[in-house]
Write a structure and sequence with these properties.
mainly alpha; flat; 3 helices; about 70 residues
Length: about 70
């Protein structure tokens, strides 16, 4: 599904580009493209996911203790 941003009447091109970048960021397209740029071994994928999960759990525990 392509992402499109229509330029409104009287809108500057820079503002339309900013809206496009925000939409791409929200949908995770840029993140996925960067992640698929190079091959990542399955063990590296698991290690990275484990690291992210540990970080989010640490934040969750820290937030609950307040």
């Amino acid at each position: 599904m392509p992402v499109e941003v229509k330029v409104r009447k009287g809108e500057h091109m820079e503002k339309a580009l900013r809206r496009l970048k925000k939409r791409l960021d929200r949908e995770g397209i840029i993140r996925d493209a960067r992640a698929n740029r190079f091959f990542e071994k399955p063990c590296e994928v698991r290690r990275r996911k484990r690291k992210v999960m540990a970080f989010t759990n640490m934040l969750r525990v820290r937030h609950e203790s307040r």
